[in-house]
């Protein structure tokens, strides 16, 4: 099929490249000229496992192209994805200006040559499919002075569940595909588009092997509003699982229980499950915080106070502050001390710094006059670019970063920091204080190595 994808970010680029690799003809539409140039050269502007060879492959076959001209992309496309960003506004609601710009452009390019399914893949507030429909009609009216015939197009919702760090694998081997539409033909077109994934009939790329036993991906067909809600509810639930683990961790600390043991113990109950119950400095990233606040905003717009969702966010904010409090306690007075931060990205495997807990902690430390050295194997460059005014020192490896430090804080559990030898770490530090924000190290081993050691809930 001919496919257009608006937005060549984490979602759009990965979706576009995967669909091209599965045999579709994909045109990406992007506004960022640097991204366009890099993608044209076959270089992914983001760090994702398996994306570089995939991109090179589809580019060399000319199965994936990129343009800044929406009309060119819309002209041929039978399916048009909207995968632009939906960042949070100060009031918590999602900012739909990029979605609106994309929808208007799609409307301007609409014609009667063939039917089109316009698919919202971005995470958008409940009811946005209606707005996209209105904006597409506005775009068409701008050009033609009349409403577009309803039979020419339909708007569907197809929320994205990929995780950064494993975006390619998640796109090829998703747990489920959720399709929300108002008309049956939209389901038919989208099932056809996704058929190789649904039936797992493609040859798995060498660099992204198929999970053993996967033969079929479940597809859920539902209405647009429910599809939009599924995305928000899924992220809210995942964020709540982590905040729940952190709530229990904080009680564990007070009563002398070990949250790792406790979460494992409850997770063995098949109704609960062991995954996503890791206590630590809390969740971050581009989605959980913004999606949670957008759902809270929608909920309040309709006169309902979502107590659990608000508590999920509050517990998470407190976990970040907890790291700063521990440092203040260990290093008092903290001003002028040297602290090393291991990990900037919100989780291992990505260079994404959006809403990363490490940045909140660094900001607080800089405000307190702490001298901060940071290490991150892939996100350091992004941090330097995004915060050129921060007086940070960057180090090339975990031990070099800890040289002369009075405390090390583990914020992201990269393999490089998991593997650090604690005796060697203690030897290079000026004062052996270790705040293990991800419960990576064995507390007894850390204390044997001479550390004043703190982790979360143990
Ligand atoms: N990143 C994730 O892990 C993830 C997972 C699931 C869902 N989502 C959702 O997917 C959406 C996109 O997220 P992302 O992380 O890919 O964002 P991103 O910021 O990485 O990418 C968005 C891209 O859209 C481009 N863009 C903006 N306006 C445009 C326009 N009018 N035409 C064409 N391109 C335009 C931007 O330049 C940017 O490259 C968001 O709604 C997000 O919530 C993200």
Q: What characteristics describe this protein?
A:
NAD binding, 458 residues, elongated, six-stranded parallel beta sheet, Rossmann fold, UDP-Glc/GDP-Man_DH_C_sf, UDP-glucose 6-dehydrogenase
Tell me what you see in this structure.
This protein is of the alpha/beta class and 458 residues long. It folds into three domains: 2-220, Rossmann fold (3-Layer(aba) Sandwich), CATH 3.40.50; 231-310, N-(1-d-carboxylethyl)-l-norvaline Dehydrogenase, domain 2 (Orthogonal Bundle); 319-455, NAD(P)-binding Rossmann-like Domain (Rossmann fold, 3-Layer(aba) Sandwich), CATH 3.40.50. It is 45% helix and 13% strand. The chain is built from 19 helices and 14 strands. The strands form three sheets. Strands 3-2-1-4-5-6 form a six-stranded parallel sheet, with helices on both faces. A six-stranded parallel sheet has the order 11-10-9-12-13-14. A two-stranded parallel ribbon has the order 7-8. α13 crosses α14 (357-367). The longest helix is centred in the middle third of the chain and has 32 residues, at 224-255. The mean pLDDT is 97. Nicotinamide-adenine-dinucleotide (NAD) is lined by residues 6-12, 29-32, 35, 83-86, 98, 101-102, 122-123, 160, 162, 164, 286-287. It holds the Pfam family UDPG_MGDP_dh_C.
* Alpha-beta content class: alpha/beta
Mean pLDDT: 97
Strand content: 5-15%
The proportion of residues forming helix, as a percent range, comes to: 40-55%
Backbone CA Rg? 24 Å
Biggest pleated-sheet summary = 6 strands, parallel
| General shape | elongated
As laid out across the biggest beta sheet, the strand order is 3-2-1-4-5-6
CATH class label of the largest domain? Alpha Beta
**CATH-defined fold name of the largest domain:** Rossmann fold
């Amino acid at each position: 099929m001919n496919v257009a994808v608006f937005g060549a970010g984490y979602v759009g680029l990965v979706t576009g490249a995967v669909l091209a690799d599965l045999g579709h003809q994909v045109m990406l539409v992007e506004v960022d000229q640097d991204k366009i140039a890099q993608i044209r050269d076959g270089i992914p502007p983001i760090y994702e496992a398996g994306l570089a060879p995939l991109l090179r492959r589809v580019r060399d076959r000319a199965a994936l192209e990129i343009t800044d001209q929406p009309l060119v992309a819309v002209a041929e496309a039978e399916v048009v994805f909207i995968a632009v960003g939906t960042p949070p506004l100060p009031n918590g609601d999602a900012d739909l200006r990029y979605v609106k710009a994309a929808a208007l452009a799609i409307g301007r390019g609409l014609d009667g040559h063939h039917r089109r399914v316009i698919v919202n893949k971005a995470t958008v507030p409940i009811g946005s499919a209606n707005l996209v429909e209105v904006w597409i009609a506005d775009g068409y009216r701008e050009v033609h002075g009349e409403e577009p015939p309803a039979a020419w197009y339909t708007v569907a919702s197809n929320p994205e569940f990929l995780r950064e760090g494993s975006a390619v694998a998640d796109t090829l081997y998703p747990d489920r595909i959720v399709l929300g539409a108002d008309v049956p033909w939209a389901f038919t077109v989208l099932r056809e588009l996704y058929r190789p994934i649904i039936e797992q009939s493609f040859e798995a790329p060498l660099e992204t092997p198929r999970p053993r036993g996967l033969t079929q991906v479940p597809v859920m067909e539902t209405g647009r509003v429910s599809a939009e809600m599924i995305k928000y509810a899924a992220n809210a639930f995942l964020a709540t699982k982590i905040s729940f683990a952190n709530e229990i961790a904080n009680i564990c600390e007070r009563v002398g229980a070990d949250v790792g043991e406790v979460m494992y113990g409850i997770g063995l109950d098949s109704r609960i499950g062991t995954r996503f119950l890791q206590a630590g400095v809390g969740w971050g990233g581009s989605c959980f915080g913004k999606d949670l606040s957008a759902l809270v905003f929608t909920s309040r717009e309709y006169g309902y106070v979502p107590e659990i969702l608000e508590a999920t966010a509050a517990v998470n904010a407190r976990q970040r502050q907890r790291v700063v409090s521990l440092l203040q306690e260990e290093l008092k007075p903290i001003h002028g001390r040297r602290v090393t931060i291991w990990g900037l990205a919100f989780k291992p495997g990505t260079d994404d710094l959006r809403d990363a807990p490490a940045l909140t902690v660094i900001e607080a430390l800089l405000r307190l006059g702490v001298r901060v050295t940071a290490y991150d194997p892939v996100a350091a460059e992004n941090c330097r670019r995004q915060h050129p005014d921060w007086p940070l020192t960057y180090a090339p490896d975990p031990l070099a970063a800890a040289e002369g430090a009075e405390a090390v804080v583990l914020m992201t559990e990269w393999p490089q920091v998991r593997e650090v030898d604690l005796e060697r770490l203690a030897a290079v530090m000026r004062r052996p204080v270790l705040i293990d924000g991800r419960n990576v190290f064995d507390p007894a081993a850390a204390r044997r190595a001479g550390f004043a050691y703190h982790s979360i809930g143990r």
